[in-house]
Amino acid sequence: MGRHVNIPIFIPHIGCPNLCVFCNQRTISGVREFDPEALPEIIERALSTVEEDAECEIAFFGGSFTGIDEGLMIRLLEIAHRYIEAGRVTSIRCSTRPDYISPRILDILWSYGVRTVELGLQSISDRVLSASGRGHTSLDEIRAVKLITERGFSLVGQMMIGLPGATPEDELATAEFIIESGADAARIYPTVVFHDTALCHMAECGEYKPLSTEDAILRSLPALRAFARAGVRVIRIGLSASENLSGEAYYAGPNDAALGEMIISEFYYENIRQSIDKLCLKDEGKDLFLTVHVSRGATSRAVGHRRKNINRLTDEYGFWRIAVREDDTLTEYGVRVSVERKKICT
Ligand code: SF4
Fold first, then answer.
1. Does residue 46 form part of some domain?
2. Are residues 201 and 290 in the same domain?
3. Residue 282 class from Cβ within 10 Å (0-12 exposed, 13-18 middle, 19+ buried)?
4. Alpha carbon distance 288, 338 (integer Å)
5. Binning pLDDT at 50, 70 and 90, where does residue 248 land?
6. Probe target for ligand 1 pocket from 16, 22, 192, with the most ligand atoms within 8 Å of CB
7. Are residues 91 and 160 in the same domain?
8. How many CB atoms within 10 Å of residue 59?
9. Is the domain of 59 the same as that of 203?
10. Cα 121 to ligand 1 centroid, rounded to whole Å
């Protein structure tokens, strides 16, 4: 089996009567209505671009999939399920809200081949949920994750950083809740402020301070660290390039296509520093050649944007030279360092 490919189908706000203060789904997906009869064409187009041995999954993203009209939801699932029966996709995933999960809904999803549920668990704090207009409580989250995992679905927790009233402690507690819930993966979304949202009005009148890029990096790190330590894969940090907002929709906040890479690079920087500090070097950096070993494909993340990490390590420890090498024995985010003394030629 080849690489895993998601075929994303954006179901816009049609499924959701709520108005979370940060949400403008129509702006994010660029889709205002959805015609189920358009689904086969979207799927066929996506399938025509992937390798034959790719493991494909149809992913209903956007609004709250299990909150849309049940007839429409089943129609979409029937169409998607035909691709499973034909052996052209392996399964289906969908994203939804905790209060739109029930035993009956989960039975329907399972019968059509949904195997992963991505759940908006933006915060485990009732104070933050209320200030964000989520319209549900932490109890709904606790109940939903239990139902999902007990029935054998794979759970993906989607959390946010920088919601109104949220503290770094709330955010770490949310990550820990997702881990304890048995999630297989997580998404971390630093809050971006869209025009035409309640959050935009809150920012305009000074009730909410949008995150800077630096805030977003520093506040996302503890969640990333907790997920990495627990072995929960982080499959997305920040909006993806396709979700990134054009000038018109964007109001404020960390709307940088490279944000996820910046956060991961910062995590590598921390890990490299910790490994160096274990060597207990004493002001001898200028005579040392540092080699940083990272997992396959992680060199650019370890080096950092515009060599930021290398430059900081040089400034901080004064190393003579620094090299980064990939090592197949290391796993994602894993770091090993070694030093050699500068050879003096006489
Ligand atoms: S539940 Fe989801 S789709 Fe609905 S308003 Fe909130 S973020 Fe938007």
1. yes
2. no
3. exposed
4. 10
5. confident
6. 16
7. yes
8. 21
9. yes
10. 11
What CATH code is carried by the domain that includes residue 127? 3.20.20.70
Same domain? For 217 and 314 the reply is no
DSSP state of 249: T
**How many other C-beta atoms lie within 10 A of the C-beta of residue 287?**
15
- Give distance in angstroms: CA of 62 to centre of ligand 1: 8
Per the DSSP assignment, residues forming a β-bridge with 328 are none
Atom of ligand 1 nearest to the CA of 24: 8
Residue 294 pLDDT grade (very low, low, confident, very high; cuts 50, 70, 90): very high
Q: How many other CB atoms are there within 10 angstroms of residue 239's CB atom?
A: 19
Atom 7 of ligand 1: nearest residue by CA position: 23
Query: Which amino acid residue places its CA nearest to atom 3 of ligand 1?
Result: 63
- What is the domain range of residue 326? 280-341
Overall average pLDDT of the 29-50 stretch: 83
For residue 38, what is the enclosing H or E element?
none
Across the chain, which distance is largest between two alpha carbons, in Å? 82
82 shares a domain with 17: yes
Question: Is residue 266 in a domain?
Answer: no
Query: Model confidence over 190-244: pLDDT tens digits?
Result: 999 999 899 999 999 999 999 999 999 999 999 999 999 999 999 999 976 555 5
Residue whose Cα lies nearest atom 2 of ligand 1: it is 63
Residue 334, domain CATH: 3.30.300
Number of domains in the chain: 2
Last residue of a domain, one of 222, 242, 257: 257
Pocket of ligand 1 (CB under 6 A): 13, 16, 18-20, 23, 25, 63-64, 97, 120
Based on the fold, state whether residues 327 and 252 are members of the same structural domain.
Answer: no
Model confidence at 135: pLDDT above 80:
yes
User: Which among 11, 14, 18 is the best mutation to test ligand 1's pocket, defined by most ligand atoms within 8 Å of the CB?
Assistant: 18
**Residue 27 included in any domain:** yes
Q: What is the pTM of this model?
A: 0.92
State the closest ligand 1 atom to the C-alpha of 62, by its place in the atom list counted from 1.
Answer: 3
| CA 2 distance to own-chain centroid | 23
